[in-house]
Design brief:
CATH class: Alpha Beta
Order of helices and strands: EHEHEHEHEEHHEHEHEHH
CATH superfamily: Alpha/Beta hydrolase fold, catalytic domain
CATH architecture: 3-Layer(aba) Sandwich
Radius of gyration: 16 Å
Oligomer: single chain
Distance between the termini: 14 Å
Structural class: alpha/beta
Low-confidence stretches: none
Largest sheet: 6 strands, parallel
Helix content: 25-40%
Number of strands: 9
Shape: globular
Number of helices: 10
């Protein structure tokens, strides 16, 4: 039995995985989808260094897990799981990037998007305090294939997020982050991280397996059954390898 930890993207909370968690537990694995520090104002503020603070938060959950861990991320969550792998590589059986940012050492989310698609329409605004907020019109692109009720849920749970999470470069090493197996789940209808960018990131940091699903930018809400099926396959692989080991 693997333990699957799923990390949400920007301006969101752990509830974005609500359609996926029960499918994983029904298959015999344990699963959780924590909300990152600061995303729920009732739980306190953002870390001073968001990516570092979030990675420390999730690394603690990885250390506390029973059995092998599969870390799954959507969108900006990819930065978090990469940094977690740098902290506790020996506790992670697989990193899974589900239409997520897979960025090398020294890269940032903002530079990656700007370099690949400098003319892409903006999806967020920045206020004087350095907090970013998703533009209402951008939701149509982010959740282009998600049922309306789940788009409404996402809208209700939106929060602002520090710009630092977008511009801070990652600090990764081949010896630690690079030692953990990676999988990539492509979202073929993603209007935020186009398929061309998803594949260029994979070219720089190869993944195995690479799986394509018919999804918008948020597979947990637009293709939960198919996403869960592939996550179960990866978790089963990790479980078998742990038994052999």
């Amino acid at each position: 039995m693997a333990h699957i930890i799923m990390i949400h993207g920007s301006w969101s909370v752990g509830r974005m995985w609500d359609r996926v968690v029960p499918l994983l537990t029904e298959a015999g694995h344990t699963a959780e989808a924590p909300t990152l520090l600061g995303a729920d104002p009732a739980e306190g503020g953002f870390p001073a260094e968001p990516i570092k603070g979030w990675a420390d938060q999730i690394a603690d959950r990885v250390r506390a897990a029973n059995g092998p861990v599969v870390l799954v991320a959507q969108s900006r969550g990819g930065l978090v799981i990469s940094e977690v792998a740098e902290r506790v590589p020996e506790r992670i059986g697989y990193l899974v990037y589900a239409s997520a940012f897979l960025i090398p050492d020294g890269g940032s989310l903002g530079a990656t998007i700007q370099g690949a698609h400098p003319d892409a329409p903006p999806i967020f605004t920045v206020d004087d305090a350095g907090m970013t907020t998703v533009l209402p019109e951008a939701l149509e692109r982010i959740y282009s294939r998600t049922p309306k009720e789940f788009v409404d849920l996402a809208r209700a749970n939106q929060c602002s997020e520090p710009l630092a999470a977008i511009v801070t470069p990652l600090a990764l090493s081949e010896a630690r982050f690079g030692s953990v197996p990676r999988a990539y789940i492509e979202a073929t209808q993603d209007e935020v991280i186009p398929l061309s960018l998803q594949r260029s990131m994979q070219a720089a940091l190869p993944c195995d397996p690479v799986i394509s699903i018919d999804s918008d930018h948020v597979p947990p809400t637009s293709a939960p059954d198919e996403l869960a099926r592939h996550l179960i396959e990866i978790a089963n692989r990790v479980d078998r390898e742990a038994l052999v080991g």
